[in-house]
Every structure is written in C-alpha cells, then in structure tokens.
TrEMBL record:
Its EC number is 1.14.18.1. The gene is Tyr. Its main location: membrane. It comes from the Eukaryota. Belongs to the tyrosinase family. It is an enzyme of class 1 (oxidoreductase). This is Tyrosinase. Its cofactor is Cu(2+). GO terms for cellular component: melanosome membrane. It comes from Polypterus senegalus. Keywords: Copper, Glycoprotein, Melanin biosynthesis, Membrane, Metal-binding, Monooxygenase, Oxidoreductase, Signal, Transmembrane. PROSITE patterns: TYROSINASE_1.
Length: 298
C-alpha cells in the first residue's frame, strides 16, 4: 500500500506510527523490526499495562498498487512501514501515537475520555493577539528539536538493513516539511539517477484530500503538545474569491522583497527563518519554510 494511503488510513482509524520515532531509530529496533516503545506512564510497551495498546504484527492491505507504480520491492515506502518495522503499537480506545501516549484527534484528558470540538477560524479574522500567538507557535516549532521523532538520511539498504542507522534530528516544524517531501518524492529504484518520477503518493491518488487533512491534524497536534495549548487550532485561508494572495503580506505569511522577488520581505517575521538543506538519499532538498503548511493549506 502506498505510504500516502497508509498514513491517511492510519491517522483516521488507529494512528500508531508517525514516520520514525526516536525510540525506534536504533540498530536494535531496526534489526528486530519492532517499534513498540515504552509508555512512561506505566513503564510498559505501548502502555499495555494500562490498557492503552499492545505490540502487534503490522497488517498490510492485499490490494494491488495502481498502474502509476509498476514496481515492487524497490522503494522503502511500499507496504509502509514493513521495510523498517513489522511490529508496532496498536492502540485501543481513544489512544493513539507510536507508544499510545496520545489521545485521538478530538479527545483530551489523562485517559482520553473528554471530547471537545475544535473551531478553526479564518486567518483574516484573527485579532492581532491571536495572529501573534499563531506566529509565535510557528516560530517555537521551527526552533525546537522534536523530542519524539527523527528523520532518515538514507535508505534501508544504505543502513545495511538496519545495522547502521542513518537518522538526524529535526525541528517540529521541519519534521512536517520532511514528511510531506518523503511521501510525495520520486521513487528511488537504485543506482545513479535511477528514479521513477511518475508517482506522487500524496497528491496523485485518491488519498490527496484525506491525507492532507490527516497531515494537518498531526501538525496541529504536535504544536499543541509543544506549546501546552490544547485550544490551539490551525487557521484557514478562504481563497475562493481571492484575486490575489491575501496572506502574502508582512502581516501574515510575508510579502515579497522589494528588490528580490525570490525571497521574503525583510519586514516579514519569517524572513529571519533559515532555509536548512537536508540531504536525504544523497538528493539535496530544501526545507522551504512556508511551503508545506501555508499557502492554500494553512
């Protein structure tokens, strides 16, 4: 099953695996193909002692891939995540997360029993204080290393099938830039410049809309955890009748530089953000600061 479809279904049904948990980025975890970290709340794998979840074999769909991807066994993302892990935490009830430590979307409280409705507002209708808080949270995420997740800097084969882990730290914000890239990038078939470009698991498949909803819910969830603000929601931009980019101003996402149209205005808060190159599978990419979660998908 393509990773885009897998992550979409997993996020909406029983989210248990979000890319590479730091606790599972070890040779021991990769060689055993088991990602069932301890939940600190009770000291058991997946919080099993508290009924939060249990370590189980990953179930893979038998449905065939579409004709857009006529290959098999060449891409780490095929039948995700079994190339890396074939046993993961399967969470019960309203719990989710790589170790069942979190609550499913919409649920709160120590036992995930409190249901709350989240209101997402038009970004153009935010007060100055609300807008400033939103930008402050983005900046916090941009400058805080994720304590839960790391990113891969090589393929499973380049990791010698797990004996030589290749991972690196990344900020909470850039993690989601990378996740978007990892899901949608070309397929690497092995060898120099041997790639399959006619595939995009995040955008050229039925999972396009639900995958991006799940993606944004995860991003919102991680910012809530980072900020400690359970009331935080991602604002939206209603661009249906817009004749230009209403949020491309220094008040919001940043206007154009007066002399260089390829960079942000120096008056924009985001102009101080650094563009960080990430070398993944020896293909240089850039974590564009606003590309994955701004624009039409605020």
């Amino acid at each position: 099953m393509p990773i885009g479809t897998f992550l979409c279904l997993l996020a909406l049904v029983r989210l248990s695996q979000q890319q590479f948990p730091r606790a599972c980025a070890t040779a021991e975890a990769l060689l055993s193909k088991e990602c069932c970290p301890i939940w600190e709340g009770d000291g058991s794998q997946c919080g099993q002692a508290s009924g939060r979840g249990s370590c189980q074999d990953v179930t893979i769909s038998e449905a065939p891939d579409g004709p857009q991807f006529p290959h098999s066994g060449v891409d780490d993302r095929e039948q995700w995540p079994v190339v890396f892990y074939n046993r993961t935490c399967q969470c019960a009830g309203n719990f989710m997360g790589f170790n069942c430590a979190d609550c499913k979307f919409g649920f709160f409280g120590p036992n995930c029993e409190e249901w709350r409705v989240s209101i997402r507002r038009n970004i153009l209708h935010l007060t100055s204080s609300e807008k400033n808080k939103f930008i402050a949270y983005l900046n916090l995420a941009k400058n805080t290393i994720s304590k839960d997740f790391v990113i891969a800097t090589g393929t499973y084969n380049q990791m010698n099938n797990g004996s030589n882990p290749l991972f690196r730290d990344i900020s909470v914000y850039d993690l989601f830039v990378w996740m978007h890239y990892y899901t949608s990038r070309d397929a690497l078939l092995g060898g120099t410049d041997n790639v399959w470009r006619d595939i995009d698991f995040a955008h050229e498949a039925p999972a396009f809309l639900p995958w991006h909803r799940a993606f944004l819910l995860l991003w919102e969830h991680e910012i809530r955890k980072l900020s400690g603000d359970d009331s935080f929601t991602i604002p939206y931009w209603d661009w249906r009748d817009a004749e230009s980019c209403d949020v491309c101003t220094d008040e919001y996402m940043g206007g154009r530089h007066p002399t260089n149209p390829n960079i942000l205005s120096p008056a924009s808060f985001f102009s101080s953000w650094q563009v960080r190159p990430v070398f993944f599978f020896f293909l240089p990419i850039t974590t564009l600061d606003c590309s994955a979660t701004t624009g039409r998908f605020l």
